[in-house]
Amino acid sequence: MATDTPTSAAPTAPPKSSAMEAIKGKGLKYSMVSVFNVIFGQTLLFLFVHFDMRPAPANVLAVVISAVPAYYMSRAWIWGKRGKSELKREVLPFCIFVFIGLVLSTGSVWLATHYFPVPPDATMLNPRKLLPNIANIAAFGVLWVIRFFWMDKAFHLDQHHQHGPLDVLLDPDEPV
Fold this sequence. Notes:
The protein is an all-alpha fold.
């Protein structure tokens, strides 16, 4: 007696398992690039504010400048990409997160320094001089883990059925 049993596709790792593999494989490198970028960006922001630039514009400038080495370090060291960058698969997803971080951090910096202004005569040791830095770190901290997984998908779209970077993010059936 023959039974009609459907054949199942090859088992796939559950999303949690795939996420853990991504963290094990690239998490340390991602963290190291992030630590470098936090130190670089925070130093720029601190110096711009210290030399009398208003906090919100100083934040914009620090984020834009620090995004360039962050992109190239991430691309080469974390995701192992060389050669010409692909606009839709690499640059656009990265820039979207930089823009989101820029908006969130600049809004946070503006709010923090609007309600707790940095005195014009504040010395480098005045805690209020660090307020723009604290607001910036808090805003970018929200995006850190999300960006890791999104950029991991965007840089490995060839393993994800050639979807676009936003399609991969929005498709619940795609593995992490």
